Amino acid sequence: MKKILLLASAAILAAGAMQAKTADEVRIYLNPGHGSWGPNDRPMATIPYPNLPETGRPDTCGFYETNTNLWKILEMGAVLEKMGVKHENIMYSRVKNGPFPYVKGAADEELYNRNLSEICREVDANNMDMFVSVHSNAATDGTATNYPLYLYRGRDGKDNEGNAGSYDMCAASWPRHYMDEIDPQSYYSRTNMNLRGDISFYGSSYTTTTSKGTFEGYLGVLRHGTPGFLVEGYFHTYQPARHRALNMNYCQMEGVGYARGVCDYFGLNAETTGYIMGTVKDLHEKIVNNLYKYAAGTDDQWLPLNGAVVTLKKDGKAVATYTCDNNWNGVFVFKNVTPGDYTLSASCEGYKDIFEEEAITVKANETSYAKLHLENLEYVPEEIVYENYATPAQPVYLKLADSYNFTQDDGTAFEMQGAVKRTIVRGDSTLVMTDAPAIYLINNKTMTLVKQLSLNGINPVDPENAGSYKSLSDIALTADGQLVGVNNVRCQFDDNQVDAGYKRGTIYFYKWADFDSDPILWATSKSSANFYNADMGATLAVSGPAKDCEVVTTGVTSGSSRALRFLVLNINDNEVVSSHFTEQTLSADGTFTLVKQGDDIQLNVSPLNDHYYILNGSLCAPFEFEPAATNNVDSRVIGTFNDVEIGHASKGLAFFRYAKRALMAAPVYNGNLVSAVKIYDITEGLQNAKLVKTVGTQLQTVINAAKKAPAMGAAFTAAGANVKGEDMNLFLFGDAKVVKFTTAGVEQPVFRGEYAYDLNYEENSDNYIIKFKSTGDVESGKVVLTPVEGGDPVEVMLYNIVKGGNQVYLNKGEYTGKYNWEVVLNNPAIPTVAKIFAYAPAGNGNYCTRGLAIDQNPMSDFFQSIYISDPYGTKGIYRVSPELNVVNDGAPYLTAEFATGNTASPFRMGVNPNNGYVYSADWSDAHSGIHIMNPAEPATATQFFEGTREETGLIKNAAGDALGGSCTSAAFLGNGENTKLLSFQEDYPTGNAGNELCVYNIGANVTTDKAPAVTFPTVSAKLLNTNVEIVPLENGMFVSQIRGTGNNNVGVPSFMYTDYEDNILFNSGNLEDLDGSWGAGLAVSQDLSTMVIATGYPKLNVYSIDWNNNVPSFTLQYVIEGYTNKSSIVNQIHFDYAGNLFFADAKLGAVGIALPKDAQSVATPSKYLFDAGQATGVNDVNANKTVAGVKYYNTLGVASSTPFEGINIVVTTYTDGTHSSAKVIK
After folding, report:
1. What is the rounded distance in angstroms from the CA atom of residue 1226 to the CA atom of residue 1224?
2. How many Cβ atoms are within 10 Å of 101's Cβ, its own excluded?
3. Cβ(983)–Cβ(1015) under 8 Å?
4. What is the DSSP string of 954-979?
5. 10-residue averages of pLDDT along the chain (1226 residues)
6. What is the DSSP letter of 531?
7. Is there a contact between 626 and 552 (Cβ–Cβ < 8 Å)?
8. Half-sphere CA count of 485, side-chain side, radius 13 A
9. Helix, strand and coil percent figures for the chain, each rounded to 5
10. CA 712 → CA 418, 594, 738, 750, distances in Å?
């Protein structure tokens, strides 16, 4: 990934500029902080340079600010000279470190660690124009705090600076220095600057006198009359940054950034070359070392590669190399690079070469960044990738339904010691923790108590410590199923904060390897989350598997605000690799406080993000938050649960996955009684939770959750859930009683795609009456009227649409002019494959059906009629209405017509889009051709070919031209004058020997006496089976043929996609997961995104289609089994108008199935123009009907019995079951 730092030139009117100083006139004083290798020069241990036992400090090659500050300053000076500043105009407070060895008390121990007052006098005495002092900052070692701090003499704010220009100098330098590309910053940003006056920052001041006067400030090195600043570039207590600082080139790049800031401020000559800096790290392995605690989730977690070699290439040729040091930072730097496009490659002993070279662009006077990662030669991917909420084994097509039916048992009571405090359902097991303390294991299948888990090794409550509250206060499961527990204890900031009766507290984290093991002490902490006194460990959540996870617990101040912080630990290989506390804003009115949440808070990992958590308690609705990534920063609230019906008292939430959705199960209260369990889809966030309707989840016997004796608190209730295939199990816990709810064995609602049909309208004196039929009950929809003359569409909302006839009354006074109109039905998600239709003609005892077609034209009088061909038994064609009723059940049309044909007469069919006529292919010699049925007059048939049939089946016109004959398919492309009929003809151009794919240009004609306009010899040459189906699209066609199992090959493929110029754009012989096409049935969805094909068994393979310039590629999504006869064939498949799938199985007959899909809206246009005429001036609906009820809907679809302010859709229901809608503004 290309990473380039782009900085706009700083538009700052600087003091230097106002003095009209040129580059060779500017005088700059540079002060590298510190100077010795003593205890006050910030010595810090690192992996390569630990503290030496004899001094307690590292070797002088290790980390000292003395070293790093000098490297930065010397490079800064060198770059300033390149920018035009004269060498003699740059003054350094020192250019060396030492002495060595450092001897405490020696006369020269501070030889280069100069007196600050002396530096101030030197600055002013030499008439400098700018002063820069470079340092690094410190917090608690091992914390993730890391950001720059610019300090100028004076107080906060530009107008309060001690030396004019200082603030602007800081502002010019900040964006040039801020480099979060490889150094993670815990706060601030390139535009949110941390520029402070030293007096305001430290809260006090002193004075120093120089040749320019007496100056007030806090920092001794700034108390002079020259503008400038002291910069703390980063926190060396952030250990990865400290290791980077061991690399001299890395420090030098910090100096380059400072020089650029000076350049921008004074308008110097910018460098004409650029720089590249980056890191090389392990692609998979995290670093685990007590001297390398990193910020969670950042690139610093990965193992730096010592000795890695990075090669910079231009046009494929190496132009420079860099070998990373052995100081555990992985840093590389390329200086003075000519601007342009380059690539980076990397190698390291024991590692594979980089998988793909990194493209990088270099610009003048800028730094480009790159993070490179290599894979170890011995790396083996994890066999199991653990999830906090496991994705259940389910059909890949499964969608979440709008509603489910449950049954419940009578509940099971268990004997347990203590009051229940936490329940966790995982698979077939439930863990129950009580305050005894005790942990119990329940088998969810048998609803039996299996065992009590061991607590051997848990530290007991200390009776001599008033802050030793609970030896085990909460439990959680890691993603890989290991149990984790925590104690509840008062912790203190330090020893000085331990009150009488208390001891210094320690948080203990325990882990059980499995449910048969004793717990081990996993991790400890004395953190008080930066409170003086805090009650730690009240609740617990763990994200990730035990070997690499994030652990979050709470700390609540002992103060009256009861504010809480989160203590976040990252544990890798049983070592705490990083920890921090959150929250800066602390008060009783803050986001996190027991005053708002209650004393019984619970944490859960969010199913929406591995680094998000959900907090709830008896006083608050559940809300999701992201813990801050570093100390003393407020966490981000993501969203709050939006349904108050479950009540604030509903703790014990359970989260689980189903059909690729994140769900929440929650107990529901009715006063003090737990009355039900509900399911919410929270995939779009808690704030957008959507209730999943359930039947059977109301408790038959409610659980009393009224408060008991004060010492016991409220009774415990919680929900739980697990998933088995497509079945859901819910659990409702009330103290030690468990009620189980399940969908297993319960008949579920069947959903299909619904649509409107038979659209028309009429009018009376007051209203226009929109009429339409619906194929099923639908909760909502709308009528959309679009003015013919242009203008915004008018939408009339519909509710409670019923199967069959529906009416909508429109006030005549609100409509004028002519409109095109449509009815839109809002379909819920279809959760699973479900049969919605089956019809088997009488047949011949074994076979009954070979063709199926659907009239997809909304303008047709027979819109959505389904036609079924039976060439076996009674013979003929059946018609199925949109309601899925067989119109001519038992009495097929055209029986006599097809009597002379064979078992492929009638065969596959198509519907002419111009008139709704049904065209049936006939693959017999005696009755060859394509036979046309007008569904309005189905008693007679017309032959498509105007000519004479020969004995072979070939039909010729009066001029003797071959037209066609026996064929396996008839399909249509286009409409009106552009209508074409496509057919695979056995008898064209020669009887019984043609086998050509043909196109007939018929336009508005019904029949033809013309030979095919186009044939496809290249495509036809691969259709050697000759039993062919055709699915035409606008830019090409799918052509399929019968191929048995194992016979899909390039020479004779199951299907091809071709253009209309005889080019094969896709050959299924290259599709490995298609084993054949038994029957050649194939269909493509209206939006061209899905293909279904009958395979070699046959089963139905469902593929997604990706298009690239009319060339498709296919990805198998799922396989539908159980709806076809394995010894049968499927000759024809079609999607209907709403995306339901219908197919002709030779043995089973016509079958319709609903395919899983997300919620969709299906719009049916009317073939009639809505002519509203002129307005009548009538403002109110006045239909001479008896009103049963009125509801008002706002623009969000919210219903009310009284009008809303603003726009209302008024839906009136009449006693005859009809409805009227009107738009009203209140």
Report:
1. 6
2. 9
3. no
4. -EE-TT--EEE-SBS--EEES-GGG-
5. 33 41 94 93 97 95 96 98 98 93 82 92 97 96 94 97 97 95 92 97 96 96 98 97 98 98 97 98 95 92 98 97 98 98 98 96 98 97 92 95 95 92 96 96 96 97 97 98 98 96 98 97 96 98 97 97 96 92 93 94 97 93 93 93 66 93 91 84 95 93 43 62 97 89 96 97 95 97 96 96 97 93 97 97 90 97 98 96 96 97 98 98 98 98 98 97 98 97 97 96 98 98 98 98 96 98 98 96 98 94 98 97 94 98 98 96 96 49 50 56 60 59 49
6. S
7. no
8. 34
9. 10, 40, 50
10. 10, 18, 20, 47
Single-letter code of the amino acid located at 148: P
The amino acid sitting at 418 is G
Distance from C-alpha of 437 to C-alpha of 588, rounded to nearest angstrom = 31
C-alpha 1168, offset from chain centre: 43
Backbone angles phi and psi of 371, in degrees to 5: -115, 110
The HSE-up count of residue 1142 (CA atoms within 13 Å, CB side) is 29
The burial class, CB within 10 Å (0-12 / 13-18 / 19+), for 408 is middle
Considering the segment(s) 25-266 as one domain, its CATH architecture is: 3-Layer(aba) Sandwich (3.40)
Instruction: Give the C-alpha separation, 681 to 690, whole Å.
Output: 5
Neighbours of 390 (CB within 10 A): 15
Tokens of 25: 């006139």
Q: Which class in CATH covers the domain with range 274-374?
A: mainly beta
Contact 52, 43 (CB under 8 A): no
| Gap between the Cα atoms of 860 and 844, Å rounded | 33
What does DSSP say about strands 804-811 and 948-949: parallel, antiparallel, or unpaired? Answer: unpaired
- Centroid of chain to Cα 1080: 38
User: In the numeric block, which tokens belong to residue 688?
Assistant: 């957008």
Interatomic CA distance for residues 1158 and 1161, integer angstroms:
10
Q: What is the DSSP string of 897-950?
A: TTTTS-TTSS-SEEE-TTT--EEEEE--STT-EEEEEETTEEEEEEESB-SEE-
Backbone angles phi, psi at 673, to 5 degrees: -110, 130
Give the containing element (helix H, strand E) for 67.
Answer: helix 65-82
Residue type, 814: E
**Residue 1089 is encoded by which pair of tokens?**
């995104």
As a whole number of angstroms, the distance between CA 91 and CA 126 comes to 9
- For the record, the structure tokens of 517 come out as 């093991």
The domain defined by 756-829+1163-1225 folds into: Immunoglobulin-like (2.60.40)
Q: Do domains 274-374 and 756-829+1163-1225 have the same CATH topology?
A: yes
Q: Distance (Å, rounded) from C-alpha 445 to C-alpha 427?
A: 10
Sign of the dihedral through C-alpha 486, 490, 494, 498: negative
Pair of tokens at residue 249? 């080139």
Superfamily of domain 834-1157 in CATH is TolB, C-terminal domain (2.120.10.30)
CA 732 – CA 349 distance, rounded (Å): 57
Domain map (residue ranges) of the chain: 25-266, 274-374, 387-421+643-749, 454-640, 756-829+1163-1225, 834-1157
Using left for φ > 0, alpha for ψ between -120 and 50, and beta otherwise, residue 1194 falls in: beta
Token duo for residue 1024: 């050697």
Q: Residues 1113, 1082: contact at Cβ < 8 Å?
A: no
Relative to beta strand 367-374, strand 274-286 is parallel
How many C-beta atoms surround the C-beta of residue 517 within 10 A? 15
Q: How crowded is residue 201: how many other Cβ atoms within 10 Å of its Cβ?
A: 15
Pairing verdict, β 90-92 and 28-32 = parallel
Phi, psi of 375 (to 5 degrees): -105, 130
Residue 750, Cβ neighbours under 10 Å: how many? 14
DSSP for residue 265 = H
What residues have CB less than 8 Å from 456, skipping those under 6 apart? Answer: 518, 519
